[in-house]
Design goal:
- The structure holds two protein chains of two kinds.
- By secondary structure, chain A is α/β, with parallel strands linked by helices.
- Chain A has a single domain, classed as P-loop containing nucleotide triphosphate hydrolases (Rossmann fold, 3-Layer(aba) Sandwich), CATH 3.40.50.
- Chain A has nine helices and eleven strands.
- Chain B has one domain: MetI-like (MetI-like fold, Orthogonal Bundle), CATH 1.10.3720.10.
- The longest helix of chain B has 35 residues.
- The radius of gyration of chain B is 22 Å and the shape is elongated.
- The chains are: A alpha/beta, B mainly alpha.
- The structure holds adenosine-5'-triphosphate and magnesium ion.
- Magnesium ion binds next to helix 1 of chain A.
Amino acid sequence: MSEDKVLEIKNIRKSFDGNEVLKDVSLSVASGEVVSIIGPSGSGKSTILRCATLLERMDGGILKYKDDIAASDESGHMVYADKKELKRIRRYFGLVFQSFNLFPHYTVHKNITEPVILSGQCDAKQAGERATELLERLGLEDKAEAYPGSLSGGQKQRVSIARALAMKPEILFFDEPTSALDPELTGEVLKVIKGLAAEHMTMVIVTHAMKFAREVSDRIIFLENGVIHSQGTPEELFNSNDERLNSFIGKLEE
Amino acid sequence: MSEWWAGVSETFARCFINEGRYKLLLSGIGVTIKVSLLAVALGMIIGFLIALCNLSKKKPLNIIGKVYTDVIRGTPSVTQLMIIYFVVFATINWAKWVIAAIAFGINSGAYVSEIIRAGILSIDRGQTEAGRSLGLTARQTMIYVVIPQAVKNIFPAMGNEFITLIKETAIVGYVGLMDIQKAGDFIKSATYEAFMPLVGTAIIYFVLIKMLTIALTKYEAYLRKSEKR
Ligand SMILES: Nc1ncnc2c1ncn2[C@@H]1O[C@H](COP(=O)(O)OP(=O)(O)OP(=O)(O)O)[C@@H](O)[C@H]1O
Ligand SMILES: [Mg+2]
C-alpha cells in the first residue's frame, strides 16, 4: 500500500451551540486504505464526515486533501480556502448518505450524469457513457430510465454509490450506508462496497455492521464522546482487552 | 307570474343589453384579466427575489426582504395602489392597467415570497447536501435540485394567491380603470338598479375563478402523475 495520504485531518474540533462534539480528532487516510469508524450514537461519527466533506465548518484543526489545504487554524484562527479552491477540493471526495438523497425529479441515469455535467467534468456524451458503464457494473442497467421513487432501498443506495463514483473521487465517504435498509437488502450494498475495496478504492466508512467492518477494513477507529478511543487493524480491535471497546462491539454483535 | 317575468326581463335588458352595457362588462373582464395576469407574473418575479433575500446569509439582504414584506403586509392594498398610481407614477405616462398591475405585483410579491420561502425550506436538507457533495455550486444546487422540487410543493399555494389577486383587483376603480367591478358599479348608477348589476358582477367573478380553479386542479393532478412515473 502506498504511503501517500489522500486525506489528512489534524486536531479538528467542532461544537454545536457550546456542545463540543469533536474534541481534537486526527485521522489520516492513505491511498487505497479502507478505514471504518465505529462508535455509539452521538459520538460524532457523522460530524467527522460532515466536516471532512465541507458540509459543516469546523472550529479548529487542519483539513487537507493530498497537498491541498481546505482549512487550517495554523494562523491562530480558522481559515477556509476560498470558494474557487474549495470547488476544486470538493472533487477529491464523494459522499454516500444513509438516506441516499437521490434527486427524485431525475431518472436514475440523469441522477448520475447531471452532477458530472454541471460540475464541468465532461460533456453529456461522456457522462452518459460513464453512467451506463457504472449502472451495468452495479447490476442496475434495467433501471436507467426509472425514477428513484420506484426503486427498493438497496437499489437506491447502489444508485447513490454509482452517482458518487461517476465523479471519480479519490476518496469515498460512507455514512451508515445500510442503516436505512431492511436487513435483507443490506447484503447487496455491502457487496458493492467490498468490490470497491478489492479495487483499492480509498474509503472511510461509518458503520454499525461489525462483521462487515471487520472484513472490509484495513483499520478501524472507535470513536467515543468526540475523541478517538482506540484504533487499529480489525484483528487488534476485535482481540483487544479494552473493556469499553469490548462492551460496545459485544452489544452490536449480539 | 308573467307580469313578474316581464318585469325581470325588462330590468335585465335595461342593465345588460340597452346601450350595449354588456360591452362594458366584457371589456371589464378583459381589464381584470390583463391586470391580474401581469400582476401575478410580476408578483412571482418579485416574490422569488424577496424569498432569496430572506433566505440569504447576507444580513443587508435579510433586512431588505423583511422590511419589504412588513410594509406591504402592514398597509391596505388600496393605499398601496393609490400611492403607486398617484405618487410613484404621477409623472410617468404608462397605460393605467400596466401601472395598476405593477402595484398589485408589488403587493403580491410580499405574499408570494413567503410561499416560495416555505416551498424551498420544505425540500429536505439532504438534497442540498447531496448536490454540494457532488461538486455543484450553491447556485447550481438551487437551480437544478431544490427549485424544480419546490415548484411542485408551491403550486397549490401559488394558485390560491392568483385567485386572491383576481379578487383584489376589484379595487382598480380607485385609479379610474373600468374593470368588472367598476363596470357593474357604473351600470348601477346609470340604471338606478342595484340587485342585477351587483349580483351580475359577483357571478362573473365567480365563474372566472371557478374556471381557473378547475384548470389549476387539473394541472396539479397532471404534475403529481408525472412525478410518480
Ligand atoms: N446541526 C447540529 N446542531 C446541533 N447539534 C448537532 C448537530 N449535528 C449533530 N449534533 C450533535 O452532535 C452530536 C454528534 O452527532 P453525530 O451525528 O456526529 O453523531 P453520530 O456518531 O453520527 O451518531 P449516530 O450513530 O446516531 O449517527 C450529537 O449529540 C448531535 O446531537
Ligand atoms: Mg451519524
